[in-house]
Design a protein that fits this description.
122 residues, mainly alpha, two-stranded parallel sheet
Length: 122
């Protein structure tokens, strides 16, 4: 279990070894916290927002209109997933420490929580 101060990218690196091709055939959507992902991993398709560049004082570091548009489109697709995860966390069984050893039962619990959340949405 990871505490809130642990960075998401560090958790990803611990769980998925970059030497293996975990994401080779997948479409991956990430936020700005995963900037080094593209350099260390193979992936099918990667959607990561554009970041403002650090420039000298007095220089312009704003994104152009096309980059802003792409960032907004990616955020709109990613936020649906974020809200779904947050909705499933309403059922506190997903937030609390589980001492269940079998992954099949854990998958069933997650499936039930996802089903209940989808039922609420409809």
């Amino acid at each position: 279990m990871y505490q809130g101060s642990t960075h998401d990218y560090n958790i990803l690196q611990q769980c998925f070894d970059p030497k293996k091709d975990w994401f080779e055939e997948l479409t991956v959507r990430m936020d700005l916290g995963f900037q080094g992902f593209a350099d260390l991993n193979k992936y099918g398709e990667l959607f990561i927002p554009h970041k403002k560049k650090r420039v000298a004082k007095g220089q312009c570091n704003e994104l152009d209109d096309d980059q802003k548009k792409q960032n907004k489109e990616q955020a709109q697709e990613r936020i649906v997933v974020e809200h779904s995860i947050g909705g499933m966390k309403r059922y506190r069984i997903l937030c609390n420490r589980l001492r269940i050893k079998g992954t099949a039962f854990l998958d069933t619990i997650i499936g039930v929580c996802a089903g209940l959340w989808n039922f609420i949405l409809n």
